[in-house]
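Q: Could you fold this chain for me?
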Amino acid sequence: MTLMELAQALGYPVSNNSYISQVETGKRVPKADFILKVATFFGVSADQLMRDDLEV
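A: Sure. Below is the predicted structure, expressed as structure tokens.
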């Protein structure tokens, strides 16, 4: 899945794919609403998603 496809799937404008890229590379801290959308989309809990010691 590309960043543009993920942005669209999460309900963000395609222009937000740079934000997703920055979160992915650790350059930005994700906002709570982003974490919840990603957790829901991928079927994991927000707690699991936020833990760096778990493989998601």
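A (continued): The chain is about 55% helix and 0% strand.
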